[in-house]
Write a structure and sequence with these properties.
Number of helices: 3
Distance between the termini: 35 Å
Number of domains: 1
Shape: elongated
Helix content: over 70%
Radius of gyration: 19 Å
Mean pLDDT: 85
Number of strands: 0
């Protein structure tokens, strides 16, 4: 899940960079860039990512714990 978020984040970051006449903008270039982004983000997530999954898990655990306590009353 974190890899998907990182891929989207990287893609949106790339969209903010002005295109250069040096790199081209062909469909092949876009495909290769997309494949590179996918592999990079997959490797980033496997290496621990940015900790987003852990933060979401902790937050949901707290929320679920609060909900369980209120249901027990």
């Amino acid at each position: 899940m974190e890899a998907v978020f990182l891929n989207l984040l990287l893609s949106k970051m790339r969209d903010t960079v002005p295109e250069s006449s040096l790199t081209g903008n062909s469909s092949n270039e876009k495909t290769m860039r997309s494949l590179l982004d996918s592999e990079m983000t997959k490797n980033m997530a496997q290496a621990g990512g940015i900790g987003l999954a852990d933060m979401i898990y902790r937050q949901l655990s707290v929320t679920a714990g609060s909900a369980n306590k209120s249901q027990a009353r």
